[in-house]
Design goal:
heterodimer, A: 356 residues, alpha+beta, 22% helix, globular, B: 275 residues, Immunoglobulin-like, 14-stranded mixed sheet, 30% strand, elongated, binds iron/sulfur cluster
Chain lengths: 356, 275
């Protein structure tokens, strides 16, 4: 393999104590078309009703933007430092930050012959994907990209630590973070404790719920008795998600995260050490008023990407750029092959530890 | 013997003064005061599960000071209630505990992600042989908790330390609550006789109890709560509170002793015996 950018020397994998393997996901933000197929796949599978109306375990938001729940990035939670001894106080988002389950006039339009436009029968002011495609910047240099988000099944999950009843736990076999519905009493310390706001309160069951990384699919417990990747990944039209284990050293996730260091966690400063990683977006450069390409000016401001992915985003983008160049000049690059998913067998490596 | 007259009257005066002091010390205590942590149990002979029931007016109320429980949760020291009033009663078959506390808003719903309901809990040792740790008991010294929340839930719980609360499969406790003029009144009712890890309330002995109050609109829940110290339901037979009784008898005993000494001394002096 091409080793120039791969960090071969002692790639130390930080997986949580007491966890055998750690599930992980890499999403290539350059491929997301914002179609929300993942969101709908997840919603129909897990959160269709029963107090889950406001929950999107998978959501796709436009960045820059307030996201879902509105303003989650400033809602606190996580850890104060990387020694994971003191948690950062957090807030529980209000119903208006999630958005309600609006009633629409489907009935009137489809069955009663109404010619009113289809619209919510209330006056909502926020909801998931509310600021879709707004982004930032001025024409001709406006910009935005899509950010699909699920629970990060963190290595140092502050949601787990926040619960006074130890109702949340990290599964020993694969590090999936779950809420034990028997133990949960709906106190919502996990909701405020997660800096990504990926635990949700169900006001009907009076318990908290979250993304389960489709563990029954991973275990082959579905109707076809076959192991599947998460629904959000398998349903994605451009197939931009890799699903597997971080500690599977032969898989692309390990290589992208640990060797090439081009897949980065979102908001590493929250210090929960996420296991969902992103290939950062590389946008074209800016244009001048008269349409000239300004090679040296990034369209997505670098400091914005640093805000999301930390300082390492610069090296990651440089590495990707170098490899693109090499391939353009007719060279070979393992990294580019992985990013182009030339080998579908590598995309979902879910049975690599089955023989243990 | 007329010569001895003045001495005798001095003696009589001394004895009277000493007695008066002793009586003044003892008699009011016997009639009105209770040991600080006692909750008297009135026999109402009727059903007192309604917190507004007439029979409650005959039962004395005990004021319990409340303070924040040291749970380590965010904002744990920030609680709103600082006292509650507790009354307890029995009839032939049931035990009733009524807790009243000030709370301007009746927080009855948990229908939004930020909504928490008001709540109150009464805690008893599962087994009265030893007083459990106040914070939800200990592993081998568990507590029964009767728990009511403003969204109309009643739970009977068993706990052996913070974070260990588990529900009884079937609750034997019922509750009724009213919110009036900025005050909650909640009555817990349970049959006196109960089996299966439940506190015996059959009236054979005093039973420790403590209470906790949560203000929902203050985001109080779980270990963020206002709690009392241990008190006890005076259910046992006879006069209550051994330390108190001892103090009374000591005072009375000292008074008698002093009177006797003074009397003997007086008699010896009047007889002119050498001292
Ligand atoms: S993303 Fe939030 S909910 Fe998921 S494991 Fe991390 S801290 Fe917990
Ligand atoms: S399904 Fe794929 S492309 Fe569509 S929004 Fe989700 S992640 Fe993006």
């Amino acid at each position: 393999m091409s080793t120039d950018d791969a960090q071969e020397e002692d790639t130390h994998i930080d997986i949580a104590d007491g966890v055998d393997h750690q599930v992980a996901m890499v999403m290539d933000l350059n491929k997301c078309i914002g179609c929300q197929t993942c969101t709908v796949a997840c919603k129909t599978l897990w959160t269709e009703g029963g107090g889950r109306e406001h929950m999107y375990w998978n959501n796709v938001e436009t960045k820059p933007g307030e996201g879902y729940p509105e303003g989650w990035e400033d809602s606190g939670g996580g850890w104060q430092s990387d020694d994971h001894s003191e948690r950062q106080p957090g807030e529980i988002p209000g119903q208006e930050e999630y958005g309600g389950d609006w009633e629409f006039n489907h009935e009137e339009i489809f069955y009663d012959g109404s010619d009113e436009p289809l619209a919510p029968q209330s006056d909502p002011e926020w909801g998931p994907n509310w600021d879709e495609d707004q982004g930032a910047g001025e024409y001709p240099n406006s910009y935005y990209f899509y950010l699909p988000r699920i629970c990060n099944h963190c290595t140092h999950p502050s949601c787990v630590e926040a619960c006074p009843r130890k109702a949340l736990y990290k599964r020993e076999e694969d590090g999936i973070v779950l809420v034990d519905q028997e133990r949960c009493r709906g106190y919502r310390y996990c909701v405020e404790g997660c800096p990504y706001k990926k635990v949700y309160y169900n006001a009907v069951s009076k318990k908290s719920e979250k993304c389960i990384f489709c563990f029954p699919r991973l275990e082959g417990e579905g109707p076809d008795d076959t192991v599947h990747a998460t629904a959000c990944a398998e349903e994605c039209p451009p197939q931009l998600r890799l699903v597997g284990y971080l500690d599977d050293e032969d898989g692309p996730i390990y290589k992208l995260v640990e060797e090439y260091e081009v897949a980065l966690p979102l908001h590493p400063e929250f210090e929960t050490v996420p296991n969902v990683y992103y290939i950062p977006p590389y946008a074209p450069p800016q244009h001048s008023e008269d349409g000239e390409t300004l090679e040296s000016v990034d369209r997505i401001p670098n400091d914005y990407l640093e805000e999301l992915f930390g300082d390492r985003v610069n090296d990651a983008l440089d590495t990707i750029e170098r490899h693109r160049d090499r391939v353009r000049r007719g060279g070979e690059s393992e990294l580019m092959e992985m990013l182009q998913d030339k080998n579908p067998a590598q995309q979902y490596r879910l049975e690599v530890f089955d023989d243990e | 013997m007329a010569r001895e007259g003045p001495a005798q009257s001095w003696l009589a005066v001394t004895a009277l003064v000493v007695l008066a002091i002793a009586v003044a010390a003892v008699v009011p205590s016997l009639t009105s005061a209770r040991p600080a942590n006692e909750v008297p149990v009135g026999d109402v002979g009727a059903n007192a599960s309604d917190p507004a029931a007439e029979s409650w007016t005959t039962v004395p109320s005990v004021e319990m000071a409340l303070s924040s429980a040291p749970s380590g949760l965010p904002e744990a020291g920030n609680v709103s209630a600082d006292h509650a009033r507790v009354r307890a009663a029995t009839n032939d078959s049931h035990v009733f505990v009524r807790v009243s506390w000030d709370d301007a808003t009746a927080d009855r719903n948990t229908s939004g992600p930020r909504a928490f309901a008001d709540a109150v809990a009464v805690q008893f040792p599962e087994n009265e042989s030893a007083r459990p740790p106040i914070a939800m008991g200990g592993t081998d010294n568990r507590v029964n908790v009767w728990y009511w929340t403003g969204d109309e839930r009643t739970e009977e719980l068993l706990a052996g330390g913070a974070g260990t609360t588990t529900d009884f499969e079937r609750t034997t406790v019922s509750t009724e609550a009213v919110h009036e003029e900025g005050e909650w009144h909640v009555t817990f009712t349970r049959e006196a006789a109960a089996a299966g890890n439940r506190t015996a309330l059959s009236g054979e002995q005093d039973i420790d109890l403590s209470i906790a109050v949560w203000n929902g609109s203050y985001d109080e829940r779980a270990g963020r709560k206002a709690v009392s110290e241990w008190h006890y339901l005076a259910m046992g037979p006879g006069p209550q509170g051994p330390p108190y009784e001892t103090i009374l008898w000591t005072v009375a005993g000292l008074a008698i002793l002093l009177t006797t000494v003074v009397t003997i001394e007086g008699v010896r002096r009047t007889r002119g015996e050498p001292t």
